[in-house]
Amino acid sequence: MPPLINPVTLFFASIFTSNILLTNFLGMCSFISISKDWKSSFGLGMAVTVVMTITAAVSWIVLRFILVPFGMEYLSFIIFIIVIAAVVQILEMVIDRASPALYLSRGIFLPLITVNCAILGAILFMQIRSYDFIQAITFGAGSGLGWWLAIMLLAAIRERTEKNPVPAGLKGPGITMITIGFMAMAFIGFSGMIAVQ
Amino acid sequence: MNPIILGPLVTAGIAASLALLISLIDRVVNDYGEVSLDINGGKRLYKVRGGSALLGTLAAEGIFVPSACGGRGSCGACKVRVLSDVGPHLPTETPYLSPQEIAQNVRLSCQIKLKKDLQLEMPEELFSVRKFKSTVTLIKDLTYDIKEILFRLEEPKDIEFTAGQYVQMVVPPYGAVKESVQRAYSMSSRPLDKNHVELLIRLVPGGIATTFVHQKLKEGDKVELVGAFGDFHIRDTPAAMVCVAGGSGMAPFKSMFYDMRGNDSFPEKEIWYFFGARTTKDMFYLDELRQLQKDWPRFHFVPALSEPKPEENWTGETGLITDVLEKYIKEKIGKDKGLEGYLCGSPGMINACINVMTRNGIEESKVYYDKFA
Asked: Which residue, of A87, A143, B68, B262, has the greatest Cβ tally within 10 A?
């Protein structure tokens, strides 16, 4: 029985109150390494959003029509990873053909996303919380946008604080981790407003 | 059904159907149809299928852009100038390009996917580059670590090149080496002998190609060669040639000297050849070159040993080749027609020789070299 949460509520909840990055700390590696400038952050965030929405939909179909009938839910980890890889590969080819300019500016992030744990995390949440199809899509899109929002915020902060006098030992990743900690505290303040479980 | 069977079956089934989907989409999406290649302002026009890397597509048309790594983007040799817009330079290209090359839109042809009609510019001599099937007919030990290898060309039978150019030898996978690699070697044979290619190959410890040549290659083996490449050649001026080489760096000079001698070409040029080695163990072709000096008045051969042993009874020059070179440029070589430097060897030796030459009045633009790392 899927939880009775309104898809619209779920969408906004997964952006703000249950932000996948700042409350579950998924997708941290690219979050820290790419957030130096807002242009790349924007590209990566958008790519994550698109991939998350599509993989959530595809994985839901695979889960519902293949894994559940065969009683193979325990294989979901490996199957979802294969699905993510395939979706990213297909997306890369299609974007390359449809819009070479977009491919050159965003396409380089796609292989990076294959190994982004936020994507797998979102899909596994979808499975654990037994979302229906509409919920799965809105949750995927919402989580992706939440990830985009978080990385844009961090990039903006990092660009502003770049010239600030930071103690030598904290330069770079150190101060970034502290920044993320503050951001996470702010976001966690919202948690509990809407129950997405 | 038993989950031990069903599990792998479901996983494999899903993976296989996704792979099938990918290849179907690839077939549809990556079909760029026929595109035209316009090379050097309409001089050559090709109709080819789009969708693959430019390097491979050109090779399929018989145009061999030099590539030592075979298209993996790790050697930076396959440069061509693209006049059409193919987007900004990729991060995989920029490490191999100078700012001027980037401004001229020089690209690595292995990194560019052919999607639409392209206009390209590349040196005309690349069109005479062929891939040759050849048979090894002779392997001779010149020193303990240098071999002279003679290849007879089978298909095509003739190679056109100028003395000083190089070929790339295709080394097949062997032992722990899983991928075919190509390595460049200067030809030591004369351009007149179109049916043969001779290479001098020194064993580099740990080198993939040189280990193959020294340990696996036998007379009668079939080897593929791609060439000829390079713009290391004798300049048509009256200036004297000051040539410096050590070890297998002798190769292009052997080709040049015997070619000049045979054709009596560039009759005004005096030739000075400095050959450096550590001990007589590292020396080869001594008798041939001394004989050449005797028969040919404008050729001067200066062999030098840096660490001769007393028992070797060495009577020639001793010391580092750069010191010998400096002494000769200062005291012995006639400079009235000007001097040109020709170098072949390791980057370290070349840089040292360029220093000696430029501080003794040879312009850097007149020092020519092939740097083999």
From this structure: A143
